[in-house]
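Consider the record:
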Amino acid sequence: MSREGFLLEMCSGRAAWTVVPEHIDKIDLEMVTARIEAEGWTCTLRNRLCCTFSSDLANITLYPSGKLLVKSGDREVAATVAERHIQIWLA
């Protein structure tokens, strides 16, 4: 397990990052969506396969597995979102 509790992987094309939480393989999508929205993110798509959100920081896609796609080419932005995901949204 990493110190942060997640793996941050760059996607092909270098325009996005995947956040893979360690030791989590399923989440309550509705509960986590509510937490993300409570922090000011706008949900732009909601279905059983994923939820997408937008903010001034980045666009993100949340999956029922707990994985999160951060659409930003900036690693620091992706790391900041990943830390919120692990420490707040999935807590």
Notes: The mean pLDDT is 94. Residues 52 and 61 are 4 Å apart (CA to CA). The beta strands are 6-10, 17-21, 42-46, 51-54, 59-62, 68-71.
